[in-house]
Please model this.
Amino acid sequence: MAKEKILVTSALPYVNGPIHLGHLSGAYLPADIYVRYKRLKGDDIIYISGSDEHGVPITISADKENVSPQVIIDRYHKLNYDAFEKFGMSFDNYSRTSLPIHHNTAKEFFLEFYKQGILKEKKTLQFYDEKNKMFLPDRYVEGTCPNCGFEEARSDECENCGALYEPKELKNPKSKISGESPILKETAHWFFPLGKFQQRLENYINEMNEKYGWKENVLQYCRGWFKDGLKDRAVTRDLDWGVKVPLDDAEGKVLYVWFEAVLGYISSTKEYSEKISKPNFWKKYWLDQNTKYIAFIGKDNVVFHCIVFPAMLMAWNDGEKEKYCLPQNVPANEFLNFEGRKFSKSRNWGVDAIDFLKIFPADPLRYTLAANLPENRDTDFQWKEFQAKNNSELAAIFGNFINRTFTFAHKQFKGKVPPKGVLNEMDKEMIKTISEYPQKISGYFERYKIKKGTNEIMNLARAGNKYFNDSEPWITVKTDKEKCSTTINICLQTIYTLAELFEPVLPFSSKKIFGMLNTELTTWEKCGDENLPTGHKLNKAEILFPQIEDKMIQEQIDKLGGGESKTDKNNLISYDDFMKTELKVAEVIEAEKIKKSKKLLKLKVKLGDEVRQVIAGIALSYKPEEMIGKKVVIVANLQPVKIMGEESKGMILAVENEGGNLEVLTASNSVKNGIRVS
Model:
């Protein structure tokens, strides 16, 4: 099979704080597992990332501490780099966007677009904080949404109702930096015409999806942007900290971080080329259209990696210079929550990666996250589940299988691999299972189904344990030594296969297992073969996964914001409280999209003899015409609310499926309108 040339990137983490477990499960662990697997396959692969070190949040953090931005980025770059190293991340290069090589790369892209006439200078009104003498980015202005009245809306978009509007439409704006009311002040910026590339982007994503199968949640997110229509985006901003705009008349302006940060993948690869004294090495990957470029990110970065960055590369490729490759796939993950809630530094809810790794080893965390990755929907990290994964799976299944096999090998066969004798059907079935597993796991990892692959590897450990138990070597050692020898041989071959299959997930433990086996990792193609010859000398076994005691877990739970996990009480409510909720069946008789919203549908539903209006956030999953005639379940006794200026009298019940789409709960046509659900 031909070897692939692969470029893998993980989203550049922003360095105004430490990375937490949610970050690890989003863009980093799945990428690392994929890269390690591909290296075992013998593919030509390079893995790139680095710190995103520009932007307003860093300047604000610096101002609060009365230090320079450089102090902030140096602190968190080192902290996050150390966390990644202890976690076992296998980057070929981990760079920084504050380095000159990145500044020069970003300026080169800007100037190329400027010379091509792609960028347009426009004057705009932007919120300005007079007290702090600075223009404010969207996230640092908060006010009342002009559509739904939500009081924590941003200057250009409401997270509550999804409305988009001009900054001047925001009511009661306040600067989140000074608390004062900002003014609207004119400023000039250069804009990238994203809308000009919409059709090409749609064609590109459709083609990549047809060839390589993009995740449905990523496609839905992109389609939402396309439905609203792509618009010009400013590529500069008024700020001191960042990549200076390389024009004479651009004093006090830097490149917008959304524009320059994604170019950090290119500059990081250039830096790696310099480190290995091969200045043009980076071109081997970036400037070859045969490169398989995979970008691992969290869902909050989909627009930048599926729309913005590809558009920038398209714009560059329209020029006279060498052409960049575009991402072949962007397997974005959803979010990992923590004990039933979102990670929150201010509420002391969550745990930073570096703090976690000071207490527990990396591999149990890698396994727990990998077995529960938020690939198609948000998932949850729980301390007690982490304990169970370590104790009940890694220790009791995988570790126990290794320990009992090695115990027999040392005690009964002088610490050597015993020979196989005549095989019975159970032996043959186990050998067949071992030989088939590498291809099975490849099938999952190649399609970025890391979660399924990880759980399947543990199933092989389960199969090994079952084979050991069913073979009863503690009996055959006395009654049929040849049969016992065969059992232990096959179990040792299974351990070798498990060590290699698990290497991408459990690199530290696999290294120890190969040390115990007194051998080294082979290629993936030989995984599942008989890799341990008869008579091969084994080393002593060691405990790979010590039990995690209840006390250690409780200590971590006690550190949380309220002293208890939200999942400990499971949000229990009384029976009487629940009975106050009226769930009723209603038939949708009219449906239409709400203007200026990509999420909302306006529905007219028939509830018995009553017709009422309900606003539902299902527009990304259902077209209006698809809802007509459906018998849906609604919460019928909610107080009416205004959403996007429209009254909503009820809430439609829906669930999120494995593909990340919403599915409304429906009743059969035989159920009458208005009947109560019980």
The CA atoms of residues 133 and 182 lie 10 Å apart. The first strand starts at residue 5 and ends at 10. The domain at 117-238 is CATH 2.170.220.10 (Methionyl-trna Synthetase; domain 2). Residues 383-412 form the longest helix (30 residues).
